[in-house]
Specification:
This protein has 2 helices and 2 strands. The chain is largely without helices or strands. The protein has one domain. It has a two-stranded antiparallel sheet. The chain starts with 12 loop residues before the first helix and ends in a 33-residue tail after the last helix. The mean pLDDT is about 85.
Length: about 110
């Protein structure tokens, strides 16, 4: 790797990809958890069952969520993010995860 003007090495491409795919508010890198699992299915996801009603493209879909694990590690509230984000390494299966789309929604 080559040095920058500030004498630091740039991140490798794998780390850059992880940074881009991980939203603020996650406890660890997106995709570092079990394959094919999302934050929606994790017991640390806060605000289960809140569905959007006002945006046409998001109507009936689960609203952005917050991560309780992130909040406990950081000592405060984190940012909300898409519940369909790939799970992180702190993932723990929620026995009754909410659906991504409200089953009785009518557009």
């Amino acid at each position: 790797m080559q040095q920058t003007m500030h004498l630091t090495q740039p991140y490798d491409s794998d780390t850059q990809d992880r940074i881009k795919s991980t939203p603020a508010g996650m406890a660890h890198w997106a995709g570092s958890g079990p394959e094919n699992k999302t934050c929606r299915e994790c017991k640390f996801m806060l605000k289960h069952g809140n569905f959007s009603t006002n945006a046409k493209k998001n109507a009936g879909r689960l609203k952005p969520v917050k991560c309780a694990k992130h909040e406990s590690m950081m000592g405060g509230k984190g940012a909300s993010f898409d519940p369909a984000t790939s799970a992180c390494r702190f993932f723990q299966q929620d026995p009754e995860p909410p659906s991504l789309v409200q089953s009785n929604w009518r557009a």
